[in-house]
Every structure is written in structure tokens, then in C-alpha cells.
Amino acid sequence: MNKFTDEVSISNQTKIGGGYPLSSNVLSSIFSFLDSIWIILAGYLSYSFVVGGSLLLRDGYLFAICFIWLIFFFLGRYAGIYSFSTILAPFLNIPKLAIACLTSFMLLLAVAFSLKVSEDFSRIWMYSFGLTTFCFVMVSRIVGYFVITYLAGKGICTRNVVIIGSGMQTERLLAELATEKPTINQVVGIFDDRIGRVGPTVGGHLLLGNIDALVSFVRSNHVDDIIVALPWNADERQIEIVSRLRELPAHVHLLSDLVGFRFPYQPSPNHFGGVPMIEVVDSPLSGFKVVVKALEDRILGILLVLAFAPILLCVAIAIRLDSKGPIIFKQKRYGYNNKIFEIYKFRSMRPAKIEAGVTLQATKDDDRITRVGKFIRKTSLDELPQLFNVMIGNMSLVGPRPHAVDHNEEYSELIDGYFARHKVKPGITGWAQVKGFRGETDTLEKMEFRVNYDTYYVENWSFFFDLQILAMTAFVGFVNKNAY
């Protein structure tokens, strides 16, 4: 099966969307927050019914509640009560939760005796606080389990998984995933380079193609995890495959060899429960990071649109008076996961006929640039309409700068790992830009430096990293000698 055939077979299938995929970090954070609420509520209700009096807790009782919350949180992390497998098996982990609660209150008693303040606390309050905390936490876990089970049955909080390999490892993996309760991981595709020699099905799943087909599939569909299920003695093949998969916006895992299924093992802390595997490629934006990035773009985007509204209006009027043609220039660019979108910029050049499919970068003293265009390009004011791209959702404030379609295709053939920059949304400004790599890329070396900085940003994203880049943009990013 050739690449063209693979892509056609994939494109003819129904697109697989994504809901709200659960991850160990997200689930742990949710239940940590809920447990905090239950502990505080249990302490307050116990105080109200046992001690009574003012609605405001006395200092000693308030300290005790805060102490229990802090100790329970750290003990819970150490005991593993916030791991994915523990949260999804509440009935089996009742003893673990009971021990965490009991230990927390025993430590509180020990501190109270050591400080000689134990007589200041009602013993009945202490017992009722401990019992109520355990009941609240346990009921929360049970209710949470049934809610997750219901949502998983509706396909709302499942993770889309694809598998590379069609041997015994894959069959064993499919058997393990079939026993999941609730069914969080949905296998949406199996791929293998040897599709002509195996198949057409594995464990009841249709083989969809080779590695090229897998890349096309992930580009066209929402995929959360890619599992490489190959024998570990095929190390060179695994290295080659993982190198290609690094460019895709998904977590990549290496499944254990068959021997890993034969020995007793502790459940892995990730969302695959007891399946023995290791993660070799992390998705840069997953879990709550997606929410943080989205809020950052929307909130700051709105504020920047309001702040720059007078400048947007003035530039638009100046362009209209300076030369004929549209005020806004639109151009197709590659964005997140290689999806093509239209980027908005203020027009800075005179309309000219160019060969279809060819993008000519602006050069120094380019005679196509208008008088207003020269100023807005030098000051980066031509980029301001991209704030509306951010509001639409196909760009971020910070990220790798999007390249023209033909430039993207050209450089992807020349630079290894080029498409890794598409694992996040493109940005108005970026790490490469504030480090001086903006403007014309007339040599391959310049583009390689830009891609290296973009890749570093993708692999090290954080909210504070974005704030650093935005701050640097305010001082060094608007006016640049390479912008013309």
C-alpha cells in the first residue's frame, strides 16, 4: 500500500473528534480540590453541631482544620490516593483512604499533646471531624467514579489511542484495555509498516495503513496517545518511528515487551492503569495546560484589542489613503497540527501579480512596499490584525511564527524535526522572534536557528515563559532591523 492509497483510505473515514480527555494530572487536581472542600466542610459542620456558638471558628479549631488539610494532602500524595488507578477503583482503595485519614488525625493529636493544647479541643469534635472527613471523601470518590463511568460511556472524557504494531504485544494490549472499567482509552486505529504481510485485522480492529498513513490520520483526527507496540529487540526501528512521531501533538508511549506482561508489576501512574509502558514523548499542551493557554489568549487578547483599537483604526485609515487595495491582507499559513488557516495582516505592499503557489518574502528596499507599509512593517504594526486570529482560535499570542504554505513544504524537506513547531498553535510573537530571528530567512542556516528556538519553546512551554516572551516583545520585539 503506497502513501497515496493510505491517505485516501484515511480521508474516506469518519473524522474522529475529541472530547475532554482525562489525564492523571487533571484527575488528581480535580480530586485534590474536592478533598480540600470536604475537609474544610467536615471541620466546620462538626464544629457547628458539637461546639456551637459563633459562625466564626476559634483560632485553635481553625488551625486544626488547616493542619488536617495540609497533612492529608501530602500524605495522600505519598500514599498514592490521587493516582489514576486509585481514583478509578474507589471500592478497592477504601483501606488506603482510611489509613490516610487516620494517620492525619493521629498526627494532629500528637502535635496537640506536644504543644500541651489538647485540652483546648473537644474530643467529640475531633472524632466527628475525622469520621465526617472520611465519609465525605469516600462518598466523593464513589460518586466521581460513577460520573466518570457515565461520561466515558458517552465518549465525553475518553482518550483516543492509536497503536503501531500488529504482533502479540498489540493483541495482549487490546485484551488489557478491554478489561478497563470505566473504558477511558478508546483504540481508534492500528497501523503497521508490514501491512502487506499481516492483517487485515488485529484483535478485531482493522489495520489502517503504515506509518505514513498514521501521520496523516493524526493530522486529520484528534489523537491523544500513540502506543508503539514493537519487540524491544527492534530498537533501530523504534528509534526511527519515535523520531517521526515527535512532530505530532500526542503523547507517545513504548509498550513493554511481552515479558513485561508475565511478571507482577505495580499499576503505572498514568491513564493506562496497569499496562506496563513508558512515555517517551510528552505532549506540550495537555490537561490543565490547555485551559491555561486558552484563558491566556482570550483574556489578554481582549485586553490588547481594546488597548490597540485607536491604533488599529489609525493604521486602517492611513492604508486606505496611501494606496489602492484592501486594508487587510489575507494569506494561507500552516497552523496547529499542520492545519491550514488564513492569517490577517495590515496590507503593507501594493497588489501585484505573482505566480500561484509561490510566496516572495519581502527583501530590503523592496519596491512593492508602500510608504505606510514601510513604517508598519518596521514597527510590526502590520501584525496587529492577528489579534483577531487569536480571538477566533487559530493562533495564540505566543508561539512559533506561521510560515507560508510553500515555505513550510520547502523547509520541512530540508530540516529534520521541522514539523515539531506545529505541535502548538502559531503565535503573533515567539521565542525565536524576541531572540532576533525574524524577518527574511534567505539562508537555510537562518531558518534552522529559528526552528531550533521554536522547538525549544514547544518543549518547554509554561505560562511564565509566555509572559517572559510578551515582556521581551514589548521592549525588543516591535522594532527590529530585520523587519522590512
Question: What report would you give on this structure?
Answer:
It is flat and about 85 Å long. It has 16 helices and 11 strands. Helix 1 runs parallel beside helix 8 (211-220). The chain has 484 residues and is α/β, with parallel strands linked by helices. The strands form 4 sheets. It has a 5-stranded mixed β-sheet, with helices on both faces. A two-stranded antiparallel ribbon has the order 3-4. Strands 8-9 form a two-stranded antiparallel sheet. 50% of the residues lie in helices and 11% in strands. The model is unreliable at 1-14 and 259-269 (pLDDT under 50). It has helices at 3-11, 24-51, 59-79, 84-87, 94-114, 123-153, 168-178, 211-220, 235-245, 288-322, 371-378, 386-392, 405-414, 431-434, 444-459, 463-477; strands spanning 159-164, 185-191, 201-202, 205-206, 225-228, 251-255, 277-281, 328-334, 340-346, 396-398, 427-429.
